[in-house]
Amino acid sequence: MFEIVEKEYFSPKVVRLEVEAPMIAKSRRAGHFVIVRLGDKGERIPLTIADADVRRGTITLVVQAVGFSTREICALEVGDSFTDVVGPLGHATHIEKYGTVICAGGGVGVAPMLPIIKAMKEAGNKVISILAARNKDLIILQDQVAEYSDEVVIMTDDGSAGTKGLVTNGIETVINREKVNMVVTIGPAVMMKFVSLLTKKYEIPTVCSLNTIMVDGTGMCGACRVTVGGKTKFVCVDGPEFDAHEVDFDQMLSRMRAYDAPKNQ
């Protein structure tokens, strides 16, 4: 159970894993996530479900090696297994026909964005996908995104692919040329903060998917708490998606830095 049946490297530190999990594959919807564990004493890692194949009974996870546990996961090979895969967790993305939808993904945030792009397109929306990263080597799933998008815009910090600039530059270019009815953004917290500030200026409804520190995934530990609209919410049970204009990103960013190594004085 939870055996890895396919593995693909998007970059030296970003890996796509197809994992055997038939019950999760059958019930998952766009926006849902799982918590995985490797070993009886392993750390619980939340990962958004990037895709699912009900026929094969598999789910797709995209993992970036940033710490000890994620490096261990990225080192797994076909035939290896997770000890636990729990889910689907969280609330699924609300999908309806809005009109023109911008789906803005940063780095590995493109992976959880893919099923949302697909669902938004199937609901009859015009979907403009904006993929952003520091450089061309960190742009992932471009072909898969293009399959379900009316337009794909690539933004890189260094200009090595697409247009040089930030994701907000790409979003504003689209806003200035046509009416946008909804924006969905997934990526680093600081990126989502500035996307939110931009779309609030233009009064465009915006949904973000938060990636806070998470432990149990049931709302019991409180590690993932955030302030949304002045109220305390738990990303694992109330989210992971929220009205971006209501999220206190500064507080969230401060809490996410709690485990950073202290800087040298």
Structure description:
- The chain is built from eight helices and 15 strands.
- By secondary structure, it is α/β, with parallel strands linked by helices.
- It folds into two domains: 4-89, Beta Barrel (Elongation Factor Tu (Ef-tu), domain 3), CATH 2.40.30; 100-256, 3-Layer(aba) Sandwich (Rossmann fold).
- The strands form three sheets. A seven-stranded mixed beta sheet has the order 10-9-8-7-11-12-15, sandwiched between helices.
- The radius of gyration is 18 Å and the shape is globular.
List the helices and strands and how they pair.
Blueprint: E1 4-11, E2 14-20, H1 22-27, E3 33-37, E4 45-53, E5 58-64, H2 68-74, E6 84-89, E7 100-106, H3 110-122, E8 126-133, H4 142-147, E9 151-156, E10 163-164, H5 167-177, E11 182-186, H6 189-201, E12 206-209, E13 225-228, E14 231-234, H7 235-238, E15 241-243, H8 249-256
Parallel strand pairs: 7-8, 7-11, 8-9, 9-10, 11-12
Antiparallel strand pairs: 1-2, 2-5, 3-4, 3-6, 4-5, 12-15, 13-14
Helix pairs in contact: 5-6, 6-8
Question: Judging by the overall fold, what is the CATH architecture of the largest domain?
Answer: 3-Layer(aba) Sandwich
**Average predicted confidence as pLDDT:** 89
Dominant shape = globular
Strand percent estimate: 25-35%
Contiguous uncertain segments of 5+ residues: none
Radius of gyration: 18 Å
Major β-sheet profile: 7 strands, mixed
Share of helix, binned: 25-40%
**Tally of strands:** 15
Order of helices and strands: EEHEEEHEEHEHEEHEHEEEHEH
How many individual domains? 2
